[in-house]
Automatic annotation (TrEMBL):
Annotated protein name in UniProt: CoB--CoM heterodisulfide reductase iron-sulfur subunit A family protein
Segments forming domain FAD/NAD(P)-binding: 18-344
Molecular-function GO term, any one: metal ion binding
InterPro entries: FAD/NAD-bd_sf (IPR036188), FAD/NAD-binding_dom (IPR023753), HdrA-like (IPR039650)
Gene3D superfamilies: FAD/NAD(P)-binding domain, NAD(P)-binding Rossmann-like Domain
Coiled coil, from the record: none
Length: 357
């Protein structure tokens, strides 16, 4: 009987509580729907005109080449069916405590009140123009991995700026990651497998095209990532060169001459290709940075939101009642992001159950 009374008390503490979720990407959508199904009132606040985040621009996911559109639509259906109140075109600029609650202020002077806040504001993509030596923004045949996905989703094909099929493509790993010169010494975690996925897609689309991957070292942590790497080598004849690009220059015919060092062979390398694809990494989101500055939340050494405890309280921020999920914490793959969002909901429910009235 005592256990039933305790359970009922905890249920009462959770029911009718209001959670504001900042960010309508896959982490925010998943967390919002899970919380709503547990009986909480949830407001999902998205700064864009639609939910789904950066996956709306992606063509296929690794390692199974599935459609991100299917995933985003599934999450959108879950949020709608669970009764989540989704607010669009609204960017939260400030979170203030109001007693035991929070007041969230938005860019249009709109205000929201909540008993807990979940920050799922995502990440920014590294600006490849910062690496001037790679020629992005200067040479038409130098694109990023994000550009590749957008082109494939919109056109279903890859052409040079001249409108021709590329015969040789170089894919450059670790652009904006593991690079002290740009201030990002961490690994963005998904770039290596993204490069392998895109290399395979190019090979299947253009069988006569030579594809070269220039890498520092391959970091393939997923259960199917190594098999995809072997498939790229054996079936698709992708050539992996251990070395970092030092310079790219445009020739008169718009092809790109690249200079690198083959660190396995210990010799400099010069090559002419039709296209260069830069695998750009993840950076802390701009929206997250604004919230941090105004709410005494702290960041880790890489600029992402700092957890109360990296092992056992990863979804708790350094401010009581404010939680976080997904790539606002650190670089994550899609499946990790969704799992992390579910973990955040457990922390929030536990917070309400054990909070004194």
């Amino acid at each position: 009987m005592y256990l039933n009374q305790t359970k009922n008390l905890k249920t009462k503490r959770v029911n009718n509580k209001h959670v504001a979720v900042i960010g309508g990407g896959i982490a925010g959508m998943e967390a919002a729907s899970v919380l709503a199904r547990q009986g909480l009132k949830v407001t999902l606040i998205e700064k864009q005109a639609n939910t789904g985040g950066k996956l709306n621009d992606w063509d296929h996911l690794f390692p199974d080449f599935s459609s991100p559109e299917v995933l985003v639509n599934s999450l959108a259906t879950k949020t709608k069916d669970s009764g989540v109140n989704t607010v669009y075109n609204t960017e939260i600029s400030r979170i203030e405590r109001a007693g035991k609650r929070f007041e969230l202020r938005a860019n249009q002077d709109a205000r929201f009140y909540a008993d807990a806040v979940l920050v799922a504001s995502g990440f920014n993509v590294f600006d490849a123009t910062i690496k001037e030596e790679y020629g992005y923004g200067l040479f038409g045949n130098v694109i990023t991995s994000v550009d590749f996905e957008k082109r494939m989703k919109k056109h279903g094909q890859l052409h040079t700026i001249q409108g021709t099929d590329p015969k040789r493509v170089a894919i450059i790993h670790c652009v904006g990651s593991r690079d002290a010169k740009v201030g990002n010494t961490y690994c963005s975690k998904v770039c290596c497998i993204t490069g392998i996925k895109q290399a395979i897609e190019i090979s299947e689309m253009l069988p006569d095209c030579e594809v070269f991957c220039f890498y520092m070292d391959l970091r393939l942590y997923g259960s199917k990532f190594d098999s995809l790497y072997l498939q790229a080598q054996k079936r698709h004849k992708i050539q992996f060169i251990r070395g970092r690009l030092s310079e790219a220059a445009e020739r008169a015919d718009k092809s790109i001459q690249i200079k690198a060092e083959d660190t396995l062979q210990g010799r400099p390398l010069r090559m002419t290709v039709d296209m260069v694809i830069l695998l750009v990494g993840m950076e802390p989101g701009a929206s997250t940075s604004q919230l941090i500055q105004k709410n005494q939340m702290t960041v880790d050494e890489n600029g992402f939101l700092k957890s109360a405890n990296v092992h056992c309280a990863r979804n708790q921020s350094t401010q009581e009642g404010i939680f976080m999920a997904g790539t606002a914490i650190c670089p994550m793959a899609v499946n990790e992001t969704i799992e992390n969002a579910r973990s955040a909901t457990t922390e929030i429910i536990h917070f309400f159950e054990n909070r004194r009235p």
